[in-house]
Amino acid sequence: MARHERIFVCQACGAVYGRWQGKCDACGGWNTVAEENAPRTPPVPGAGAASSARTKGRPFQLEALQGATEEAARTRSGIAEFDRVTGGGFVRGSVILIGGDPGIGKSTLLIQASAVLARAGGRVVYISGEEATAQVRLRAERLGLAGSSVALAAETNVEDIIATLSRGQAPHLVVIDSIQTMWSPFVESAPGTVTQVRASAQSLIRYAKTSGATVILVGHVTKDGAIAGPRVVEHMVDAVISFEGDGAHQFRILRASKNRFGPTDEIGVFEMTGAGLAEVANPSALFIAGRDQRATGAAIFAGMEGTRPLLMEMQALVAPSALATPRRAVVGWDNNRLAMVLAVLDAHGGLKFGGYDIYLNVAGGLRIVEPAADLAAAAILISSLAGIVIASDTVICGEVALSGAVRPVGQMAARLKEAAKLGFNRAIVPSIGVEGAPPGLSLDSVATIGDLVALISKGTSFTAPKPR
Fold first, then answer.
1. CB 437 within 8 A of CB 416
2. In this structure, are residues 431 and 448 in contact, taking their beta carbons and an 8 Å threshold?
3. Domain 286-456 maps to which CATH number in 3.10.50.30, 3.40.50.2300, 3.30.420.40, 3.30.230.10?
4. 329-to-74, 326, 338, 349, 368 alpha-carbon distances in Å
5. CA Rg, the chain, in Å?
6. What is the pLDDT of residues 117-145, one digit of tens each?
7. Which residues, other chains included, contact 204 with Cβ-Cβ below 8 Å and sequence gap of 6+?
8. Single pTM value for the model
9. So what's the architecture of 74-281 in CATH?
10. How far apart are CA 365 and CA 245, in angstroms?
C-alpha cells in the first residue's frame, strides 16, 4: 500500500506546514495546526499509466477588454428582503456562502426561499448533511411548505452529489447545508477539516460555473462570529452573507460582506414568528416601537443601511461610579467611537464624564457602523447626565470631529424623508450639508458640539451633578 504524505494544516487560515508547531505564523493562532493527509489527485479517466506524466498546457483564446457586455441573468428567490441583499436575485452560476450562529434561522430561511422558488416553477435541490430528510420534511410541514416540489437528499459525499445533480436539467438552486459536513473521497481527512472543506467547495464551485446553477453553501461560525473553516473559501465564492440576530430578540438581519454582483451595504430585515421568518417591509417602525418617550438618555438616530434609511433608538445611562476606573459598556456601537465622543464633550462641551459609569445600547439588537451616529450618541450622553428628556418627535444624525465641529453626512435627504414619513416633527442635524427639510419637519442646525449642549439644555438650568 502506498504511503501517504503527511502535512500539517492550520484549521483557522489553511496555512500548510511540513511539521507541527504550536503557533501558526500566518494568522497567529495557537494550537490550530493539525496533522492531515496530503490530498490525492483525482484520477483521469482513460489516462492509464500515462496519467502521472506531466502534460503540456493547451493554448486558449484571449479576448479584448472592449466589447458588448450583458446583464447577468438573475433568478429571484421570491423573498424581497433576500433579493435586496443579493442585489436583485441569484446570478446564474454563482456560489453564495451564508453563515450565522446556531439556531439563528439559516435553515429556516433557505427552506422558505427554496419552497417559494419551487412554487414559481424553478427546480430546487436541498442537500442536508446534518439532518435526515424526515427532519427537513418536519420543518417544512411546520412552516406550511410541505406542498412545494423541492427535491431533498441527505448526503455528504460531494462527488455523489455532483454526479446526481449532473443528471438531467441543471437545477436553478442548490442548497448545501452545510459545507463543513461535506467530504471528498480524494482527500483523506476528516469532514470539517481545512483540506476537506476547501476541496468540497472547489468541486461545488466548479459544478456551479459549468452548469449555471446557483449554489448556496451554509457555513458554521466560530465563537467570535466568523465563518468557520479556511478564509480562502470566502475568497472563492461570489458572495458572503451573514445572518445576524440575538436569541433574545425576534429580529434577524441578513447582511452581505462580499458580493461580486451587487452592493455589500444592503441589509434584509426579518422577524422570527411561529410560522417562520417574516419579512419586515418597514423596519424603522418596528425598531422604534414600544419605546419610553419620557425617558432620559434616549433618542432616535436616522441611519442608513445601504440605500435603505433606518431609524433606530439609541440609549445611554450615565451613573456615578464607585470604581477607581469607571466602566464603559457598549452594545451595538464601537467602543472606540464612544471614547472619542466623550473626549470631545470634555474638551469642547465643558462636560466631565470622568467620574461616571457609562452604558450605551442600540435597541433591537442592531449594530451601527457609520460615523453619522456620533451626534446622537453625544445627545443621549448629555441627556442622561443632565436629566433632560429629548423630545420623542426628534431625530438626530451627524458626525462629530475631534475639533468639536459637527460634520455633514451622506444621504441626508433620504434620512429626513424617512423621519417625516414616520411622523417625526424635528431633526437635529449639521449646519451644513442639508439642502431642505420635507414638509412638516423642522430643522435645528448645530455647527459645534457646544451648540448641541446649548440646544438640549435650552430653557433648563444645566448643572451637571457632582459624582459621588
1. yes
2. no
3. 3.30.230.10
4. 44, 10, 10, 22, 15
5. 27
6. 999 999 999 999 999 999 999 999 999 99
7. 95, 158, 161, 162, 174, 176, 179, 182, 215, 217
8. 0.76
9. 3-Layer(aba) Sandwich (3.40)
10. 7
